[in-house]
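Subgroup meeting minutes
Present: P.N., E.W., G.H.
Scribe: E.W.

1. P.N. recapped why we're keeping a running log of single-chain structure predictions: easier to compare across weeks, and new members can see raw inputs and outputs side by side.
2. G.H. added today's entry (182 aa).
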Amino acid sequence: MTMRWNRIMAAAAAGAALTASVAVGAVAAPDGPSRLGQFSTWRGARAAAGFALLRPTRTYGQKRSNEIFVTRCEAGRKARKQVMVVATYGLKPSAGLTLRQDNAGIACAMTGRTRQLAKVTVQGASATLSGECGRHPMPACSSRQIFLFLTWKRHGIYYAASSFGEWPKTLVGFARALRPVG
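Output recorded in log:
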């Protein structure tokens, strides 16, 4: 149990580090076609990002844990014009959901070494569900205590929904319940 708790705490620290690095990137990059920074509303984030966003309508009891970050995406050739939007839900380190969307058409953030678990349909597109699991010393892929990633691309926008401490069906339900920001 102690090793599992240490992994959970390390995962929470890694998530906090990602959020902090996104926040630092948002503050450190003031120029470009969009306003970069932190936003309290999805409408504000959409206006800043400069492209259509999806927002969660079903968060399985998880509250948004901080502001919505709009930061520069350093992927691809046109990095100055590409932005990534990140929102995190969950106030406990043992469970949480995150939504990333970018206009680069490819992943702006690395997920690490994962194992493909399933193919599902999300928002009318084929999505890949993968997890950090099944390799020593990671937990089994059937465990709830793993990082899950659900990625898809639609109309040039790349989406990545991720979770820790949630079942795969929860992550898929979270992604399928995304709706356009009005």
